[in-house]
Amino acid sequence: MTDSASNPNEPLKRDNVIRVAADSQPTAVAGAIAKQIRQSRSAAAQAIGVNAVNKMLKAAIIAGSYLHEDNLSLLMRPSFTEVEIDGRRLTAIHLRIQPCESITTEV
Length: 107
Known about the structure:
The protein has about 110 residues and is α+β, with helices and mostly antiparallel strands. It has two helices and five strands.
């Protein structure tokens, strides 16, 4: 995939991993997640820092509502990963997202 440098409102994507920043718009990230799920049946997002992780989780929840129309629910598997930025090794949260048949969440 190509970087989204031409549109600053879209999340940055490299190697099919959606990079989420603290100033990312959750709805834009959600759209990118839903698009990847529809195209390749999986998506991955990554964030560093509490605000970015918050935006990433909000986006995944919003993407689930977008995909509900397709009768899909989302399974999410978080993990830690090491990344290098400007010569520094940082810990990021990596979120693997996969669809499953819609499940009822009503109580």
